[in-house]
Design brief:
This protein is mostly helical. Helix content is 64%, strand content 0%. α1 packs antiparallel against α2 and α2 packs antiparallel against α3. The model has no long low-confidence stretch (mean pLDDT 81).
Length: 168
Amino acid sequence: AAAGLSYVGAYVFNTYKSYDNFLQDKYAVLPAVIIICVAVVMFIIGLIGCCATFRESRVGLGLFLAIILVIFIAEVSAFVLGFVYREKVKTDVQGTMHSVFEKYDGKNPESTVVDYLQVQLHCCGVKNYSDWTTTQWFNSTGNNSVPLSCCRQDMKNCTGRLDQPQEL
């Protein structure tokens, strides 16, 4: 389990590099750090449990049980806090995403990240394609269309025009 969590933590770090323009907060990488720390702690706890079982030590097994109970309480607390603050996180992420979409010009690094995100997640805009209508890029192009990264991948001749929303 510790090796699996280590892999997930490293994967989150690696994925963060692709989306760091959306996650401008310095604490955005905190989940990956927590996952890796949990992996290290799980390895140590597993080692204690194995050694206590192998030696048939009541003190070691008691320590192992106490640590497992503390971890369980921490997991329940994390779940409750995540549930309580989910709307705040959602609002913060949407606000940051809107600011990045506002900087879109088709050429800068933020534009590349927006295009990558829309292609990878098969989406268009923060909520939907109408989010593009309020951006400077949309108003400056004057062609009533969204970036081609909004196009569905199965559409070959997509132009991004808003009068053909079935292609987005």
